[in-house]
Amino acid sequence: MIEIQALTKLYDDAPVVEDVSMSLAAGSVTAIVGTSGSGKSTLLRMINRLVTPSSGRVLIDGTDTRDVEPATLRRRIGYVIQDHGLFPHWTAARNVATVPTLLGWPRTEIDARVDVIQDHGLFPHWTAARNVATVPTLLGWPRTEID
Fold first, then answer.
1. Residue ranges of the alpha helices (H) in 48-146?
2. Dihedral of CA 84/85/87/91: which sign?
3. Residue 146 in contact with residue 76, Cβ under 8 Å?
4. Which of 38, 51, 105, 140 is the most exposed place for a label (fewest CB within 10 A)?
């Protein structure tokens, strides 16, 4: 569960995100909708501490994110960035395997996860960048996904 409590971000004393509170149940799907520049990305970046809130707090499974080492926190959260973050000259399978490889996962575990995707016919046809970027989350690599 992600719980956001009175989260605010100020830039030059102007609020970009102001007093946002919400609870997101595990396994739920929530859409954060707004115009360009309305603070959607800033809100998501505050959840995984890419941006530090000016006030308020974020709890994940009851733990305040300020009490967790940022790198540890980010390993637990899948974050599909808006511009996809893929290497266009690599295969979809190699893109999917990148983060687990960097985290030191055993090659056999990475290969098994990629095989699941291939066995279900998701490669090579399911190669739209956003879909490929989402695959690691679908396979359960992070505990929590924000997008």
1. 70-76, 92-102, 107-119, 129-138
2. negative
3. no
4. 140
Burial of 13 (0-12, 13-18, 19+ CB in 10 A): exposed
Query: Is pLDDT at 55 greater than 80 in this prediction?
Result: yes
Q: CATH for 2-79, among 1.20.1250.20, 3.30.300.30, 3.40.50.300, 3.30.70.260? A: 3.40.50.300
Q: What is the pLDDT of residues 90-139, one digit of tens each?
A: 777 787 787 778 778 899 988 888 887 777 665 554 445 445 555 555 55
Distances from the Cα of 113 to the Cαs of 84, 103, 142, 144, in angstroms? 20, 15, 13, 18
89 burial type by CB count under 10 A (0-12 exposed, 13-18 middle, 19+ buried): exposed
